[in-house]
Structures are given as structure tokens and as C-alpha cells.
Amino acid sequence: MRVQRTPQTGVRVENRIVSVVLWCRAKEARASLARVLWVGVILLLSGCMGLRDLDKPSRTAFTQLLLSQALERGLEPVSLPLPTGATIQVEAVGLARDNTFTPDQEYARQAVSVYLARQGFRLARGGEASTYHIKVLLQTFSTEQAVQFFGLPPLQSIFLPFPIPELALYKSVAEKGIIRFSLTVFDRATGRVVSSSPWYDASTFYNQYLIMFVVPFRLTNLEFAE
Amino acid sequence: MRESSRATAMGSLFLRRHLLAGVLACPVMCFFVLFQLQGCTPSRDFVALEIRKARPVLKRTVSEVERLKVAVVPFEDRRADTRRIGTQRSWLGTLTAWTVVGDDVGDIVAEVIVDHLRRAFGWEAWIVRPGILQPDGGADITITGTVLLFEANAAPGFGDTNLAVTTHLHLKATEIVSQRVTSETIEETVTQRVFGFEPRDLEFLINSTLRRQMDRFRLHLYDVGLIRS
């Protein structure tokens, strides 16, 4: 029996042949295709990484030193006219956001307690009744910052594919720690004021300078080991 | 033409008269302006000085045996005006009167002395005040005193300010065990010239004057044999 080939049948056969050939070639390339896909996935994941930003602490080490050493300097002239050996309890209050007790106030309280203990006063232990209650009023215990810059600030150009960094002819970053406080001594039994100290104030500074793009130097009255 | 020249002459005469009047009025106006400015200067009745704050003093540490226990009683103020301790006179002639924080000179002087006994001598000192309990064992020596004169003045100089502090204190020390009593009146006058006067300068000067008087009283105590070192 003779099969008569129509033009549609011929096209269909040719399509099948092409499909088979492609299937065979794809089978050969299947092993290398998996490798290519893996490389693609890795490349895509690497795009998610980029450069990791360093975690910036809420307060740098120098800011903490500015605060703690300002308090230390402020305590130097403190002198309470009480007999040594008296049992005391210290409380610190200051202006804080939302009237919350901040770690700064707690640090100030502990630092004043330690200083007075070194002066010969005895700190009341937990539950023990103290003879005197000392209230530390912190008018301020914070830092001030000021930046002066003369030069070209960092620019993101639309023509150049990379940003132009900051070019400082003169730049100064000044940070100052300031404290002002007073101590009031209350007789715990009667609640009366026994003694009230003057306002003590002290400050520390840490200034960084940059001149002509590359010459850095700093001025500070902080005491710390390099 | 004639009318226009006459008008020009009248105009120049008018101008000349007013110019002369303006020149004459200038010094008079300046005088009145200064007079008015003097009225603008704030008239401050009393400014409180914090004389307890001192320049950094090197703290002395002594052994337990040498460490005297001293109770200081707030001083009696025998001055006629117990509030005012001096004045500051400005160039314009206005006067600012000084007082001490709390207006109690005798009490503040006693606090300065307590601080000096602790820091400079290394003694154990405290102030005798209602509410302050005596430590166990009590005091070895009690110091009482009287403020006889306390003057702290600031006067403008030529480009600077002259400060002068004069204090007369009558100091009395009583040894508790033997009940020996010794007393001395110590007068001290210290002057200083400062550029760019601030009340803090006067505060430090008063503080150092009181400390010097206490140094002299300590020598007196040593001379009479009340203390050994």
C-alpha cells in the first residue's frame, strides 16, 4: 500500500525530527546546565550581601569618656561638712526624656556614692537605714557637638559613576562633655536639710581637626591610655 | 533772575543756621544719651557669691594617729550689716552689693574652714549643725569663731579691676579632754588685679583669704602646744 505524502504531513514529520534533535542536545547539555544554574544562584545571592556597615554604638568610647571624666572632675572639689563614718544613701535626679530614670543618672549616682565612700562615709547596704539621704541634682550631664567645615562636601555626580569624597581644607569636630550638679544632704529621721553644697561644674573636650585634606590632629583634656 | 538769586541766598542762610544748631546740639545730645544709658544699667541690689568653691587644693593624707577630729561651730557674725560683704563699683558709678549664698556669712565661713581642715591638714572635720550627729568618740578640738570684719570689694582700674578682700576673724579652739582654750584674732588683707573681672575671681580670692587665715591659726595652735604637727 502506498502512502501518499501530503505537504502537511511532511511539515509535521520535519517538526518531530527537529524536536528529537533538540531533546538529544538538551540531554547532553543537562549536566552543564545544572552547573550554570548554580553559578547564577550564587551570583544572585552575592548581590544581596554588599559591604556590611559597622554597627555604630549609640555612644562612642570618647563620648563615654567625656561624660565620665567630666563627672570625675566635677567631684574633685566636693566636700560635705559631715562627720566621716556617717551612713549615707545617694540618689541622683536629672532632666531626662519622659521623666525616665536614665543609665546616666544611675552612673552618676554610683560614681558619687563611690567618691563619698572614699571620703570615709559609709554606704547603707540593702535594707539598712541610713542616717543621711543625699540627693544629687544633675542640672546637666551631657555632651555638646559642633562641626566646622571649609572645603568641598561629598558629592554624587550624575555624570561620574562614583561619588566624589569630602575634600576638607579645614574641618573640626568638637565634642564637649558638661556636668553641673549639687548635693543636698537630708536628715533621714526628720527630713530636714542638713547641708547644701554649691553648684559644681566641670567640662571635658575632645576636638578633632583636619587641615588640607590629609593632616589630622586632635586636642583633648581627656586622660586615657592610647 | 533777581528773585531766584534771593531765594538761593535765603536757602543757604537757612541751611547754615540749622547746621550750626545741629553742631551745637551734638554735645548736648551726647550728654543726654549717656545720661539715659546710665539709667539703662541694671541696678542689682545683691549678688550672691559662692565662696565655698576653691581652686584645686592638693589633698594631704595623714596617719590615723595624727588625724585630729575637729568640730567647727558656725561663726558668729558681729558686723553691723550681716548681709552685705562688699560692693562692686562700675565705671558709670553704679554699685552692686555682694552677699554670700544663703546670706549667712558665719555658716559659710565655717564650711570653708571645714573643707580646709580636711584637704590641707588631712584632719577629720565636720560642722556642728542641727541634724548632724557627732561621730563616735566625739571631737578632739572644737573651733568657734566670730566674724569681726568681712569686706570684699571690686573697683575698676585702668583697663583692669582691683579686687580687695579684708577679713578679721576671732578664732577660738577648745581641747575637749583638757578643756584648754586658746584664741587669736587674725586679720588678713589680700589684693589682686584681674583683667576681665568675673564674680568667680572674687569668690576664689575670698576663699583663699579664709584658708590663709586658717593656716595662720594652725601655726598658733602649734605654738601653744594644742597640736603636735
Topology:
The complex is a heterodimer of chains A (226) and B (229).
Chain A: H1 7-49, H2 61-75, E1 87-94, H3 103-118, E2 122-123, E3 132-152, E4 167-187, E5 193-196, E6 200-211, E7 215-220
Parallel strand pairs in A: 1-2, 1-3
Antiparallel strand pairs in A: 3-4, 4-5, 4-6, 6-7
Helix pairs in contact in A: 2-3
Chain B: H1 2-40, E1 46-49, E2 69-72, E3 76-77, E4 86-89, E5 95-100, H2 105-119, E6 124-127, E7 141-156, E8 161-175, E9 181-194, H3 199-223
Q: Would you give an account of this structure?
A:
The complex is a heterodimer of chains A (226) and B (229). The termini of chain A are far apart. Chain A folds into two domains: 11-39; 61-220, Double Stranded RNA Binding Domain, CATH 3.30.160. Chain A has helices at residues 7-49, 61-75, 103-118; strands spanning 87-94, 122-123, 132-152, 167-187, 193-196, 200-211, 215-220. With 226 residues, chain A is of the alpha/beta class. In chain A, a hairpin with a 5-residue loop joins strand 4 (167-187) and strand 5. Chain B is α/β, with parallel strands linked by helices and 229 residues long. Chain B folds into two domains: 1-40; 46-223, Lipoprotein like domain (Double Stranded RNA Binding Domain, 2-Layer Sandwich), CATH 3.30.160.150. In chain B, 34% of the residues lie in helices and 30% in strands. In chain B, strands 2, 3, 6, 7, 8 and 9 form a six-stranded mixed beta sheet that branches. Chain B has a three-stranded mixed beta sheet with strand order 1-5-4. The radius of gyration of chain B is 29 Å and the shape is rod-shaped.
Key attributes of the depicted protein:
heterodimer; A: alpha/beta; 7-stranded mixed β-sheet; 33% helix; B: alpha/beta; Double Stranded RNA Binding Domain; 3-stranded mixed β-sheet; 9 strands; 34% helix
